[in-house]
Amino acid sequence: MRGTLWAAALAGAAGLLLQAGAAHAQQAAPKAAAVVNGETISVADVETVIKSRGPIPVEIPAEKRKALRREVLEMMIDRLLMEQFLRRQGPKVDEAEVNKRMAEMEQGLKMTGKSLADFCKATDQTEKQVRAVVGQLFQWESYVRGRVSDQDVKRYYDDNKDFFDGVTVHASHILVRVPLTATEAERQAARQRLLAIRQQVVGGQVEFAEAAKKYSECPSAKEGGDIGSFPRKMVVEETFAKAAFALPVGQVSDVVTTDFGMHIIKVTERKLGEQPSEFGKIKDVVRDFCIEELRQAVLAHQRKGAKIDVYLGP
């Protein structure tokens, strides 16, 4: 069974991790889509990943094609950053363990009527590249094992019980966009502008929806700032979700900062899940979410210190 799971995991990684990892191993100097800490992700790699997702309609609008290429490139940058991180800080690759997992993978593929050669051909990779990814997966598992204990998983569950219980909130917001390169004076000006709007709303001078239509710089402005319902995790930015779930229904938040800019938030409804979750029954699911959050934290930290040059054109 494990061999099948390894094959599935590698198949999922093949379109991104292998391509990103292969970019810097190419002999010729490819046309760069991005260079990440001196390592190249080529335009050809991006196109290969897009093709692996299935045929793209010929009539797809240019803007959508551009957005798709950029989305794939961003994922490939993340994968390469993680590969670089594991090279520097991950545990040493155990070749005996890699051999064992490669054997498990081949056995799993055999159960589906395929061989390792078939897998390599389908994913446009060499066996050496597949082995490299198996090693990286092993490194990540080992890295996580030393950092996510049973106590950590239980704490994560307790801190995010609203999410595991299926609680959602319905919210509206008013956004003032603030570039990541904004000066401190520009940030303070945006904050003061939002606080003034908040004061008008709290003081009853204007309805929140009307203020959103007038002042918000989000596409939701035309809907009075309404962004619908969402769970505690994985849908909106963490700082936004945390603030929204802390708000009593009908109240307006203080200024909340995200990568999009600065917001004030109003929660209009809170819905409970069908039934409370039980930690013992979903422990493995909670662990997966806890590990994913660790991965996101690692990537965020790597991006902050990385030199990333993007050259991908239309």
Summarize the entry for a quick read.
This protein is of the alpha+beta class and 314 residues long.
Characterise this structure.
- It is a single chain.
- The protein is of the alpha+beta class and 314 residues long.
- It has helices at 2-23, 43-52, 62-89, 95-111, 116-123, 127-145, 150-159, 161-164, 184-202, 208-215, 238-246, 279-305, and strands spanning 32-36, 39-42, 168-177, 226-231, 256-258, 261-271, 308-310.
- The strands form 2 sheets. It has a 4-stranded antiparallel sheet, with helices on both faces.
- β5 (256-258) and β6 form a beta hairpin.
- The longest helix has 28 residues, at 62-89.
- It is globular, with a radius of gyration of 23 Å.
Evaluate the radius of gyration. 23 Å
CA-CA gap between termini: 43 Å
Count of alpha/pi helices: 12
**In which order are the strands of the major sheet placed?**
4-3-6-5
**Overall number of strands:** 7
Topology:
Blueprint lengths: L1 H22 L8 E5 L2 E4 H10 L9 H28 L5 H17 L4 H8 L3 H19 L4 H10 L1 H4 L3 E10 L6 H19 L5 H8 L10 E6 L6 H9 L9 E3 L2 E11 L7 H27 L2 E3 L4
Antiparallel strand pairs: 1-2, 1-7, 3-4, 3-6, 5-6
Helix pairs in contact: 1-2, 1-3, 1-4, 1-6, 2-3, 3-12, 4-6, 7-12
